[in-house]
Amino acid sequence: MPTELEELVGLIIDRNPQVRLLAAEHLVPYSISQPNIFKSDNLTPVHNLKLLIKDLPIPTEPNANLLSMLLANLAKSDSLKTILHKKQAPPDELKSDDMVVNQLVDIFVKEAAYNKHADFDHLSYLFADLTKHAELRHHFVRRQDYDGVIPITKLKVFTEHKSNIRRKGVASTIKNVAFDVPSHPHFISEEHIDILPYILLPIIGSEEYDLDETMAMLPDLQLLPPDKQRDSDPNIIQTHVETLLLLSTTREARDRMREVKVYPIIRETHARVQDEGVQDACERLVQVLMRDEEDEKPASRVEDLGEVREGEQDVGNDDDDDDQILEV
Question: What top-level branch of life does the organism fall under (predicted)?
Answer without folding.
Answer: Eukaryota
